[in-house]
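Quick start: what a row looks like.
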Amino acid sequence: MSMTIGAAAAAPVRIEFKIVPMETLPPGVAVALDEVDGLIVARIGDKHATDALCAELEELHRTVTQQERWVQTSTASDPHRLERPAEGLGIAHVAWERVPAETLPHGVLAAPVERDGMLVWLLHEDHASAQLCAEVSEYGRRIAGDGLWEQRWPTP
């Protein structure tokens, strides 16, 4: 695992996506993130995503996080840091976007692509709501944009 000079060692992140009843989320919210000991659980309202999409997203994220391509750089001492509005640091750019099925390879519900220096998760439009994509993109502005998680790739 690499370290940033002058900062604490980054911790590996694990991510789970779970469909939950809408009434278990705050009113008007499509997704809520809970973070405990390096585990991020995205609780997604049952009207906003399908189980199949969540399973695919979880598998894609597992590969990246197990290889420590994404690591948590913020400390767990502040349990509300993910809920705060983005500070606008723009360290990294991550977003979710709904696309028609024909945009994705056959049978694929989610595909990460790089576009103009941004990591964009293309999601099958029949499996994710526009509200979900907007809310997760906002979380991305906070988490990746403000450097709470950092992308790390091996150096050649």
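That is the whole record. The longest helix spans residues 51-66. The two ends are 15 Å apart (CA to CA).
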